[in-house]
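Q: Start with the shorter request: fold the first protein.
A: Done. Sequence, then structure:
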Amino acid sequence: MEHLAWQRTVEQHREAVLCMVPPPAVVRRALDEALGLVLAVGATAPADLPGTRASAMDGFAVRHADLVQGGTLPVTLDVPAGARPGEGPGPGSAARIMTGAPVPTGADTVVAVEYTDIPRGPVPLPHQVRIHRVPPLGDAIRAAGSDVAAGSVVVAAGSVLDATAISALAATGHAEVSVRPAPRVRVVSTGAELRSPGQPLAAGQLHDSNSFLMAALARSLGHQVDRVSLQHDDAEALTAELPRLLHGTDILVFSGGASAGAFEVVRQALGGRGIGFGHVAMQPGKPQGLGVLDGVPVFCLPGNPVACAVSFLAFVRPWLDAAAGRGGQQHRVQLGQELGGKPGRTRFVGAVLREGRGVPAAARQSHQVTRLAGLDGFLVVPAERESVAAGEELGWLPLP
């Protein structure tokens, strides 16, 4: 089969990418394993939280009618956090109560310990407490269900489970949740010129950075990643390795070997297997490959590091987000200074954020990997624009 050639815009290529997203899957996960995943089924509160009236602070539970400025009340019982709701205090008396403890049935107000002559800390139960300041009726009492009422939604379907959502689910008794699983990612860099970091370099050789770049990007998005470095340009060897590379992953991402040169190992090995190669009207990142092999989506990105980073953010990330159930959020940012260039291709310009505006970094070329450090993302300049004035809004590809 011949290589499938095409010419696409960025939008057309992204649409082709999203057509490869599999049907949504739902799995059950323990809370400890759910961080960063998308909730597939909304979680509701099975009961009121708190389940009973509770004290909002350390102090004394009393009947408000018994309070007198500067008066004293006998203390007849202690109510620690975790105690069962009970009766008391009786008329004309007080109960020492801890934050979060259930307010006894007979009390209607909690007097903060700061309003009394009893110091904080583990002191013996006093015989009486002097009230220096009378709070309003009902003060410092949390009503049952004041956090969340039974049957209310705690975390909505489609929410990304961050630390605060995990906490809310735990507080309402959810040990497991139904989530969209995060796709497993395998990234592969190719090239006979590559050597692993730490190895000495001969003339013409480079340390492999793209596999680390792609792996770090995928991990920062919450995915399990397997990183592979193929330090050769042997199409037959790559063909023999394909079953191993396709096994146990949900997406396979190559960098390098996708252009039209004489030693483009990825294109030579995959072009006859239904993976299409062509050009996307973008700078950097023009040569791209895309398709499905043995049920696994395959992305073939350029080998130049900046082009690899842009391509990952522009195409691989949308697939990962959609497959994981995350919405396709479109980011925009105001341009911090005038930006010029040649129209005809969508341009991705490295930039930093200053006071909320995207400021283009110094001019760079797609091989300058160290220039990626310190960027906040890439400004997206439409293909038809020659120049953009400061203050105009542009698309924004944030670095995670």
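Q: Next, the second protein, separately.
A: Sequence, then structure:
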Amino acid sequence: MGIRTADDDEVRRIMRLAAGRLLRRLPELTDELVARTRDTDEAYRRMVPTDDHWQSVYEAMREGIGAILVAPPERRDVQQAEKTARLRAEQGLPMDSLLRSYRISAHVMWDGLVGVISEEEPDSLPLLIRSATKVWHAVDRQAVAAADAYRKREAELFGRTAERVQSLLDALLEDRADAALVRSAAAALDLPELGRYAVVTTRLPGRGGQTGEQARPASLGTMRLLWRMRPDYEVAVVLLHEDEVEELTDALRPHVTGSAGISPVVEGLAELGRARRLAELALRTCAGEGPEIARLEDRLPAALVVSQPELAGHLSAAVLRPILALDQADREVLLGTLEAWLRCEGSAVRAAGQLYCHRNTVFNRIRRIEQLTGRSLARPLDIVELTLALDAVRLLPVN
């Protein structure tokens, strides 16, 4: 325990004298500090209203100078610093600006203390200077507390902001957005209410929808993407600007390792719910585990099938029942041949190249398909029925 000396008592007396005088000049000191801060810091001028700034400085100076007059347990300067810091974080003031204001306040406060003693007891200035370290230490303590409170509040606000952004994006994608919510979402997401948008849905192979391990681009050229996790896939809202869906498809290809569905273009945020449903429909037309990108406009017949599974099931049973009744190996040979034939637009030569067999083998299998189904691949209506029935077999779950 230290021993109090007469000089220590005299320093305390001088400090209390000066503090008492400064408290009488508090409005004047507040004016000076506010003016110096706002003159040198644009962030304060833009983000902190003048009246708010003046009041918080007044309270901080009152508590800071008043701390000299009270015992340590009764000091409230640190609590005041924390309160101000939380408010500045909410206003978006940079923390550098906040901490710079404490340096300015230290100068103003110290100049005020020196001015009082110079006027009233100039011979005591050497004693006052001995207390300089304590004064600056007190201001540093307030600044440290303010910085800590600012970081904590900023983290809280960031979390809430992120949650709000995600909830607004969910509302748009779930088609729950009225005009007011669309305006709020546009502001929060920094997106135009009216613009050319598409929605992308992706599913990775064998992940059961858990796609978070794969990095997703936030932009592709001039296109901007906002990604959102869904229970069984990922979804992205894409602001296309002047690009077309074809450019989006090409740009996405290096990033898609599973399946993806892309909606047609819609003309604003209010239509994202419909675009999301169409993108999901496109994704459901992907038969394998990828990589495969399905644009809805290229998969409309298959999309009709997956959107009406009960009716499509009846169609496949009515058209392909004799083939589906065969043993698995024979069934897959005929269905695979039909699929290759349709994909190759009726070219036996091209189909044979894909199936690694002779073109006559393809012709023989096609004739057998026609005999079993009673349909002819020379009749357009029969081709439509066979195409839709084949899509139903490939895309719908087996009952």
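Q: Describe the second briefly.
A: The two ends are 86 Å apart (CA to CA). The beta strands are 194-203, 219-220, 223-229, 234-239, 259-262, 266-268, 292-295.
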